[in-house]
Amino acid sequence: MPEVVFSVDQTRSMRDQEVPGHNRWHPDIPAVVTVRAGAEFRVECRDWTDAQIGDNDSADDVRDADLTVPHMLSGPVAIEGAEPGDLLIVDILDIGPIPQQSGAVAGQGWGYTGVFARENGGSFLTEHFPGASKAVWDFHGVYATSRHLPGVKFAGITHPGLFGTAPSADLLATWNRRERALIDTDPGRVPPLAWPPQPHGGLAGTASGDAAERVLAEGARTVPPREHGGNQDIKNFSRGARVFCPVFVDGANLSVGDLHYSQGEGEITFCGAIEMGGFIDFHVDLIKGGMEKYGVTTNPVFLPGNVEPRYSEFLSFVGISVDESGTNHYLDATVAYRRACLNAIEYLKKWGYSGEQAYLLLGAAPIEGRISEVVDAPNACCSLYIPTAIFDFDVRPNAEGPVKKDRGRCALTS
Amino acid sequence: MPEVVFSVDQTRSMRDQEVPGHNRWHPDIPAVVTVRAGAEFRVECRDWTDAQIGDNDSADDVRDADLTVPHMLSGPVAIEGAEPGDLLIVDILDIGPIPQQSGAVAGQGWGYTGVFARENGGSFLTEHFPGASKAVWDFHGVYATSRHLPGVKFAGITHPGLFGTAPSADLLATWNRRERALIDTDPGRVPPLAWPPQPHGGLAGTASGDAAERVLAEGARTVPPREHGGNQDIKNFSRGARVFCPVFVDGANLSVGDLHYSQGEGEITFCGAIEMGGFIDFHVDLIKGGMEKYGVTTNPVFLPGNVEPRYSEFLSFVGISVDESGTNHYLDATVAYRRACLNAIEYLKKWGYSGEQAYLLLGAAPIEGRISEVVDAPNACCSLYIPTAIFDFDVRPNAEGPVKKDRGRCALTS
Amino acid sequence: MPEVVFSVDQTRSMRDQEVPGHNRWHPDIPAVVTVRAGAEFRVECRDWTDAQIGDNDSADDVRDADLTVPHMLSGPVAIEGAEPGDLLIVDILDIGPIPQQSGAVAGQGWGYTGVFARENGGSFLTEHFPGASKAVWDFHGVYATSRHLPGVKFAGITHPGLFGTAPSADLLATWNRRERALIDTDPGRVPPLAWPPQPHGGLAGTASGDAAERVLAEGARTVPPREHGGNQDIKNFSRGARVFCPVFVDGANLSVGDLHYSQGEGEITFCGAIEMGGFIDFHVDLIKGGMEKYGVTTNPVFLPGNVEPRYSEFLSFVGISVDESGTNHYLDATVAYRRACLNAIEYLKKWGYSGEQAYLLLGAAPIEGRISEVVDAPNACCSLYIPTAIFDFDVRPNAEGPVKKDRGRCALTS
Amino acid sequence: MPEVVFSVDQTRSMRDQEVPGHNRWHPDIPAVVTVRAGAEFRVECRDWTDAQIGDNDSADDVRDADLTVPHMLSGPVAIEGAEPGDLLIVDILDIGPIPQQSGAVAGQGWGYTGVFARENGGSFLTEHFPGASKAVWDFHGVYATSRHLPGVKFAGITHPGLFGTAPSADLLATWNRRERALIDTDPGRVPPLAWPPQPHGGLAGTASGDAAERVLAEGARTVPPREHGGNQDIKNFSRGARVFCPVFVDGANLSVGDLHYSQGEGEITFCGAIEMGGFIDFHVDLIKGGMEKYGVTTNPVFLPGNVEPRYSEFLSFVGISVDESGTNHYLDATVAYRRACLNAIEYLKKWGYSGEQAYLLLGAAPIEGRISEVVDAPNACCSLYIPTAIFDFDVRPNAEGPVKKDRGRCALTS
Q: Across the interface, which of D92, D140, D281 has its CB nearest the CB of A40?
């Protein structure tokens, strides 16, 4: 167990920690600690919502979540000698939930997958599932099960949903400009096209005075992935992965949060994977001038680890870029993947799951989302791979037809 | 070796075979043979262009290809007892290139990956690579190498790019209607938004008279994947895969073509994977009423096989839905994947490959294209996984920087 | 398809081919062809018994097989420039059964697994299964099934059971000397401790006159693996494998035979894997002086390929070196593996298979045999891994107990 | 984190714990806790030697280790309702080293691989390596490195070397009888053929009075695996594995110890894998009457987990049952595996490692040991698979020959 450079008392909000974290991206958030290149260290994390979601059978907390709060990040950690233009090597040595005590917050033996209501965040299939729903997962070492999804058990592909280096002032300005431009194309949209800076709910780390005000006023929201990494939600950032992150400020200023016990590709439920607080162990190093050397200027590059759960049999679904109304979209992989997800849900409903249950399952289990082709105009083709071994029944099609059973229910709103 | 139910003389065009195939989708194309449910049989195939592309060092043939010709399909094969509403089980028992003789056509010991010119088909990155280019691959049993891509060798993930059941008249009308509507939004676009029916170049199988005229006038082009399967270009339809295809006409009328020695996910070069003629061995069976039983109404469902090439180490690239001009696109996985591809190409250029070479490599090698997240507004995140073992050098980033070498050249236009 | 340098007419015995092969190892067997280092070529093979075993429901042919005949080998192929002390690189590019015609001989759409009778060869469990038995397997592209083993289907891990370079005269003398010494410790044992030179049934390739007589008189039997490779029965010599073979004579003189559609580790049934005739495609090259450079003096070194069947779930059995009578053997991995095999057979019998059926299955399916520990005196521990996916039922233990069904029968003797 | 039912203070010997464990197998060792079938619980463990081996650069501690002490086991844990004849389902939910504090004992951030001296335990290759040696490994989350083995890094396949149910009095008597009979065949052998009961150094758990005396006098040593499981050293008992153990006494009485951060198959160094103290999380359940139901009477059956480190490329070595003096042994897999190990060591020496270093590496890294064939008289064939990715150089043979470098040194004796 390496040295803890950012510790969290899970009985208190991130705002009330001795050294608080942050929930906006801004170059003026001070590093809370400096480590050497070559160091190994541990960072403790809150769950992304700062414990707004409970281990219960109602999705009211998901419906009513305050979305100005996420993602609660731990850090920034400065790396000695890091300069703009370098690549920061980030090795994920280990990751796990919070040592269990009372079970009060996500990560202490349990986690959750939620679907946000359309009016409060929405999700990938929000037109089809406009209400909030939730599944609570119990952790059994490497395995997760859910009372809200009987018949399912799988080894989690544990990873941080979000980590990244701090943006430079220029880069931040670019983000704010381009996202504002997008919002302006449909300012009243529900859910919004993007999440603009929002002082309310903001947490500026250890910044104070003017700096804190700038962070709250200008700080980029943590929702989207951007050039520095950020909320990439790449499920393969699991144990043993090595990520090469562009550096934009002196010290790099690495922050992390949004730990996932597991996630399906797409994180289609948005709230989200199997969310939890916990810890992550990093090793860091530098490739001086690496951005230019390797042409890695706009996004991280990575090497996945080799201790992910391993499956060899999948049930796979296909979608093409014809939307639900029958309209053709030109090589639109988003529509194609949405159709693949909807096809999978229809299939799972035939076995007795509700649509909400199937949706939650796709957001949480180690499914793969593939771009099969994006050239055969007008239809992109995406496919979705569900490991068959996660079910305690044979989920493959056969001549007799599916065995429809009572599969319980997930948490819904009151 | 099971019975050959559709044979091809590779010295002649598909038009001149004793029993010709077809290159349009239409319910009036007669089945050329009927097999029983439970049968195993072999189908021989031309390469998708009917041998327009040669084993040479010029991409002029790609530039000048007649795109009214593809895809030359073998079939249709009718299955006794198949009725609309059934699911046709299609097992891919084996697949391979043409037994080598003169080497005159793709599949006889070699195949090709091409990038279409913008004016004649285009490709996924056509704005960046508007010209035609080509790599010729030599087959060494399970391995492929290319004189146009020195330093690379990999086991192919061999599969049919295209197979599917025949559409009903209603379904065909739906296709034509919705694709026409899309074209009408920008009729002069280059490349076109979709490929409308086109009598010129059409081949109606064994249809004659009025039926043949209807096929040529109304027949859907084979380019896009649709509800029946079609040109899905799913690389995991490899040996051992089982596909469940919706049935829309009596007999199902299964056709197949566009065999790929290998392909990267996305088939981003469009012309295309590693293209070849060859053979495919099928086993077929029926799930009566399976479409309703399993809710499989709009696209096939499948179980990938377990004899694909297996890698455990990948170099991976990330893209987000901010386009090359810096404009944000709302959760657009197509843009995100394009950026991931462009990032990979920039990286490979640092090692001495030309952009065209890198592009061709991504279209051919068994790379994976993943939808990492499609909910973190406004940026979708896609990732692209290149197996590191396909290079004869260590392609991973290190402190010294990449070793830039002369990596030869691919075929370009005159 | 590379050039065929050794062709076989499967309607005739290896003895009656235009260019016959051989079934003894001897430096005086002339090479039948010479290829360059760097060459790719195809070799055609008879099944190891020269077609003594038929596609029928009796094991009488196994019981009565003439064991002076195997293994019928194709070659030798000389490699230009190869000299003693070199390492011969042998790449297995492809391998497969005989193109199906009449089905008359093993490899034409079918193969067999046999257990030799104790009096005629014996097998690993000959004390438990002294009689002959047989299962005939039907090939369906990558998959095999057997009417003698209902409920089982798997992708074969196809490989040559036997290939190797020719021994020098000195090496041959060493073999004959040490094996004679072993035989002399119990000359009347049934089955014998080793197989001494045996002129009867021998085939000396294209040797004639004195040379032929020497080959028959002194030639080493092909049964055991030795320093040159030989009958190693390593199932992972599958497509894509690279083997580095020591060279003992000028030209290396590579011979090959005993093709297996599939095999379980141990080849415990002895007659044997899933035996077949067929073809194998090789690429060869040289590492001059490689034996000394790499210290590879006594046995080949190899890199397995990456297109083997892939499984992720196994049912595994354990054995320790306490024999069936309760006697302890000091760190004896052979006894431990035998007990693991017997434990697996007992388990499978609970599901309705006969002991012979279970035995045949373990010899044929892609099972793994592991040496778990060989130091915890006095008991070695071996384990045996059966992929669960090869059964069409759930073979894992559960609270209800196994479902015992009629699982048919394998071929037995009259 | 489930409830800890057996806790260990790592600053004290197992003998001095509040509730001590045991280091002999005997039915009279009282259970220290009883759990329900279906329970999940944590057990804390000492390293197998009770901390005799230190984090230093001398192998003197290995040379001088008191072998009457191992293996220090935690438990027994009784399971409510377990009766002789049942199968105890043991799920390995999680496993890991001791939370790091001072680093004083193995498991607190480090572990060791040792080779015992011939006079004190010996090892698999003790004739070749009669002296003691040692490598200390540092843990970096999932990865291990060693200052004694530069150039090597790998993800550990973490598992318990030893766990099992308690023997009945009858079974214990059988063990003692058969092992004594073996010892009597060569009573003075060094190392001994087996380890007889030995009161000196024994620890009888919470037994007292007559019971304690019986345990010390009759208790079976923990070295070998036996019918109940025990020291099987199966590396695939990693996270997610399910093991079905025969039950011989009421309550089953499960004990565990000898945790390994990683191990190569064979555990050929004997002292041993990468040894550590730590914790293990179990889930247990019962199959009533399962021994008879499934014919599992002599050894456990298991399902490996699916979160092991995953490799796809291996460098593999072959051995046959001809010993180092050139003598043939009849189908002796132990000799064959020994030769494969020696071949691997010779190869690694060509790259600059000492023989001791190579030996230690084979004992620690996730290598596979395969029984390739055990029927081709007189030579068994075994093979050993080393993942190539564990080296920071390309370890595969090539035309240039190996790059011999200074690879440091391992710990030796003074």
A: D140
